[in-house]
Design a protein that fits this description.
The structure is a homodimer. By secondary structure, chain A is mostly helical. Chain A has one domain: Rhodopsin 7-helix transmembrane proteins (Rhopdopsin 7-helix transmembrane proteins). Chain A is built from 11 helices and 4 strands. Chain A has helices at 8-35, 44-71, 94-115, 119-144, 149-173, 175-179, 183-200, 202-208, 216-253, 255-261, 265-271, and strands at residues 5-7, 72-74, 77-78, 82-85. In chain A, helix 4 (119-144) packs antiparallel against helix 5. The longest helix of chain A is centred in the C-terminal third of the chain and has 38 residues, at 216-253. The radius of gyration of chain A is 21 Å and the shape is globular. Chain A binds chain B through residues 8-9, 12-13, 15-16, 19-20, 22-24, 26-27, 30-31, 34-35, 38, 73-81, 260-267, 269-270, and chain B through 1-2, 4, 33, 36, 40-42, 44-45, 48-49, 51-52, 55-56, 59-60, 63, 71, 85-92, 94-95, 97-99, 101-102, 116-120, 122, 145. Strand 3 (77-78) of chain A pairs parallel with strand 4 of chain B.
């Protein structure tokens, strides 16, 4: 599925985007690790999961990065060169699925955890979202590795079923719970769902490109950029919004804590 | 864009400067991580961002370092040798842009965060500075990777617009807020802006060198030294000044805290 050859510019672009994802995930995880004491204990579960998600993503992108480097050889001497497929190496797209299989369910756990719902309701939602997420990723994989558009289409359709079910749970069943959240965070929490939807939408699009006979180096480079941006948005940016929600809720629920923290006194005041 | 060949001295000089940046960023981050409890919670956000910035810079310089080593081969046997461009490798200058894309906006966040302004004013400033910073870097990249001086010049001009806007916000709009800061830190905070301006100035100069037909090994080595020194100043030194400001403000605002800390009693006295 990788192109016959890449120009120096195309190679460097993919190279830099993959590296951008590694840096984003790694240092979002570090940032959240340092900030963990700065929210109430009841919200640390959500942020701990976020740290793990970003860490898992960083690990897999390190592998994808190396896999990409090894998959091409260049005739470049210092400057511009043409990169062609290396003998005895292949770019392993499967890493992405291993990553998603672990991280996508955890992203939903983050969202539910930061809501701090009643225990019964929380486990009810998780028992719906997590298995659906695992199923969605697992059903996508056989199609991804198949060169047969028929097989690809079938598994695309199958994985859309749990995908739509997740959207149903998030946008219909969850709405009532969101209305019970503090005013200061209701908007952010509602937007988080759209962030997930928007960034996840990149995956089915990239998935379908080969079926639409969109191919060649530019399409492939575009797909790698799309995956990279989507992973940064859906994991790192998403985690930072979850942290902000956790912090605002911590201040709102414990004025004494807000007073101690006082990170920008005005901030605490505004959000209480 | 890298020179045909480097002397042993030129190669070692770049090698040592790149390594100096890695050490500076990594251990500034470690130092600040250890010092985080030694300032009031309200200033820890600024220092946490500083830690992340230095960490991101260290990561990218590790990559730049490896990219540089791989880009040259030498005939040296033990002693002096000539380093020529290696086949199948190219020096990836793009890393710098990936680094700046993440760190430059965060450097501005550090500065605003340590001011501990009213929340409304703070977010107003950040909504102006951060997008402008991202735009400035993103617009520079297409010119950097282009060998066409025309294209290079156009994108240089485009990225100068957000650059000048940032200067306007920092040196005009921010001045009023600086006057409200404690006397002990007003000077340092004002100087931070000049530190940014001074170190950032290196980038457009290095950017323009190829257009001025300044080329050859010496110019390239000088450019690498310039980038390295600028990155140490704009990130590590900058972060240490921010930490000093945060510590002085912490002592000034909480005498009990200053009393407890009291390492450098005289320092605490001087600043209360």
């Amino acid at each position: 599925m990788i192109p016959e050859s890449l120009t120096q510019g195309q190679f460097d672009t993919v190279y830099n985007f993959l590296s951008l994802v590694i840096a984003s995930q790694l240092f979002t995880a570090l940032f959240l690790l340092i900030c963990l004491p700065r929210i109430l204990p009841r919200y640390r579960q959500a942020i701990t999961v976020a740290i793990v998600v970003c860490g898992i993503a960083a690990y897999h992108y390190l592998r994808i990065f190396d896999s990409f480097k090894d998959a091409f050889v260049t005739d470049a001497v210092g400057g511009d060169g043409i990169y062609t497929q290396a003998a005895g190496a292949s770019f392993n797209e499967g890493y992405r699925y291993v990553d998603w299989l672990l991280t996508v369910p955890l992203l939903l756990v983050e969202l539910i955890a930061v809501l701090a719902l009643a225990r019964a309701l929380q486990s009810k939602l998780l028992w719906r979202l997590v298995p659906a997420a695992v199923l969605m990723i697992a059903l996508g994989y056989p199609g991804e590795i198949s060169d047969d558009n028929m097989v690809r289409g079938i598994f695309f359709g199958l994985s859309m079923i749990p995908f739509l079910y997740i959207l149903y749970v998030l946008f219909v069943q969850l709405t009532a719970s969101l209305d019970l959240q503090p005013a200061g965070v209701r908007r952010s929490l509602s937007n988080l769902r759209w962030l997930l939807l928007g960034s996840w939408a990149v995956y089915p699009i990239a998935y379908l490109l080969p079926m639409l006979n969109v191919s060649g180096a530019d399409a492939w480079v575009g797909m790698q950029i799309g995956y990279s941006v989507a992973d940064i948005t859906a994991k790192a940016v998403y985690a930072l919004i979850i942290y902000r929600v956790a912090r605002i809720k911590s201040f709102a629920e414990d004025p004494a804590f807000a007073e101690r923290e006082m990170s920008h006194g005005a901030f605490a005041r505004e959000t209480v």
